Automatic annotation (TrEMBL):
<dbReference type="Pfam" id="PF02277">
    <property type="entry name" value="DBI_PRT"/>
</dbReference>
<keyword id="KW-0808">Transferase</keyword>
<feature type="region of interest" description="Disordered">
    <location>
        <begin position="18"/>
        <end position="40"/>
    </location>
</feature>
<keyword id="KW-0169">Cobalamin biosynthesis</keyword>
<dbReference type="GO" id="GO:0008939">
    <property type="term" value="F:nicotinate-nucleotide-dimethylbenzimidazole phosphoribosyltransferase activity"/>
</dbReference>
<dbReference type="InterPro" id="IPR036087">
    <property type="entry name" value="Nict_dMeBzImd_PRibTrfase_sf"/>
</dbReference>
<comment type="similarity">
    <text>Belongs to the CobT family.</text>
</comment>
<dbReference type="InterPro" id="IPR023195">
    <property type="entry name" value="Nict_dMeBzImd_PRibTrfase_N"/>
</dbReference>
<dbReference type="InterPro" id="IPR003200">
    <property type="entry name" value="Nict_dMeBzImd_PRibTrfase"/>
</dbReference>
<protein>
    <recommendedName>
        <fullName>Nicotinate-nucleotide--dimethylbenzimidazole phosphoribosyltransferase</fullName>
        <ecNumber>2.4.2.21</ecNumber>
    </recommendedName>
</protein>
<keyword id="KW-0328">Glycosyltransferase</keyword>
<feature type="active site" description="Proton acceptor">
    <location>
        <position position="301"/>
    </location>
</feature>
<dbReference type="InterPro" id="IPR017846">
    <property type="entry name" value="Nict_dMeBzImd_PRibTrfase_bact"/>
</dbReference>
<comment type="function">
    <text>Catalyzes the synthesis of alpha-ribazole-5'-phosphate from nicotinate mononucleotide (NAMN) and 5,6-dimethylbenzimidazole (DMB).</text>
</comment>
<comment type="pathway">
    <text>Nucleoside biosynthesis; alpha-ribazole biosynthesis; alpha-ribazole from 5,6-dimethylbenzimidazole: step 1/2.</text>
</comment>
Length: 333
């Protein structure tokens, strides 16, 4: 594992991340052209299979060991009344994850994924970012390193999910700082109009109190520990050439901080789904990602990404399992 103790060390680690195996990608494209179907008939599944083959360095891969990671953190900005739920729900939901009772438990099991839950100092919320940085550089780097090392080296696909009351405010503040413009705040767990106005005020105060604009600076200033850990897991997966499926609004904001450092850092990532949180589509568009699913989910936990594992599995089942025209004795036109 590389040194990740400060932003400079993380930037060096990001610059050293590997790219895909282009020969495996080329062999996968050649195989795709011989499969028993009209050219292009499997639509985006064909592109997904070839992309995955390149990252895994295997022209005929399958997904056998997906890993769902769920990171939990508490946010000082929750004190601003920006969530419809109290901050205790974060730790209560962690207990629910451990007992198998949350939505993500069901979807991870259905996808045949192992699921690992990481609590990040829940008894020590981040500072309220309306008054200054949520985390010091050292705190953000520690959370980032936790995410990086949480990735199982033998996993063949990673989903990074989160739990943290008030983290849609944090995610919207990150988007505002990195992408600019307005109206990044949505209703999260379901705040009313007054709650939404409080979110917008908290974001404006957070930007005024935190002038830094590089991806990692924004991550520390406006993020939470679970968001930093998700960013670390996305990068750590790439170190093992493990593709990543991004989840919703919060997971995408974590990825956005890496994108702001260098857009190519997300080449091994797919957008699993389009969240019902209004500004998610603009965030994905900025990163050049087209979501696999659009089901009106607004849960987080990694739920939409875990569901999207099935789509990628479908792409690989066809790509790696189908017969070629020659094998099946089918005329190729
Ligand atoms: C019971 C419950 C389970 C959840 N699972 C994910 N979230 C989601 O809601 C939170 C973000 O919304 P906000 O910014 O409005 O607080 C995050 O914890 C996110 O994971 C949940 C929220 C609740 C209440
Ligand atoms: O898209 C998400 O991840 C999301 C949206 C609302 C609330 N919690 C999570």
């Amino acid at each position: 594992m590389p040194e990740l103790h400060d932003f400079a060390a993380i930037r060096t680690a990001l610059a050293d991340l590997p790219g895909p195996d282009t020969a495996a990608g080329r062999d996968a494209a050649a195989r795709n052209g011989q499969l028993t179907k009209p050219p292009g008939a499997l639509g985006r599944l064909e592109e997904l299979a070839q992309w995955y083959a390149g990252w895994r360095g295997d022209p005929r891969p399958e997904i056998a060991a997906p890993q769902v990671l769920v990171f939990a953190g508490n946010h000082g900005v929750a004190a601003q009344g920006v969530s419809a739920f109290p901050a205790e729900v974060t730790i209560q939901m962690v207990a629910n994850f451990r007992a198998g009772g949350a939505a993500i438990n069901q979807l991870a099991r259905l996808a045949g994924a192992r699921m690992d839950v990481h609590e990040l100092e829940l008894d020590r919320p981040t500072a309220d970012f309306t008054r200054g940085p949520a985390m010091t550089e050292a705190e953000a780097c520690l959370a980032f390193a936790t995410g990086w090392t949480a990735v199982a080296p033998d996993a063949d696909l990673v989903v990074a999910g989160e739990m943290g009351i008030a983290n849609t405010t944090s995610a919207a503040a990150i988007a505002t700082a990195i992408l600019g413009g307005e109206n990044w705040a949505g209703r999260g767990t379901g705040v009313d109009d007054v709650g939404l106005a409080r979110k917008e005020a908290a974001i404006a105060a957070g930007l005024a109190a935190n002038p830094g604009r590089t991806g990692l600076e924004v991550l520390a200033a406006l993020g939470g520990r679970e968001i930093a850990a998700m960013a670390g897991a996305v990068a750590g997966a790439r170190a093992h050439r493990i593709p990543v499926i991004l989840d919703g609004f919060i997971g995408s904001a974590a990825a956005l901080t890496l994108w702001a450092e260098s857009p190519a850092t997300l080449d091994h990532c797919l957008a699993g789904h389009l969240s019902a949180e209004g500004a998610h589509d603009r965030m994905l568009a900025a990163m050049g990602k087209t979501p696999l699913l659009s089901l009106g989910l607004r849960l987080g936990e990694g739920s939409g990404a875990a569901l999207a594992i099935q789509v990628l599995k479908g792409a690989l089942a066809c790509h790696s399992g189908m017969a070629t025209f020659a094998e099946a004795g089918v005329s190729d036109g």
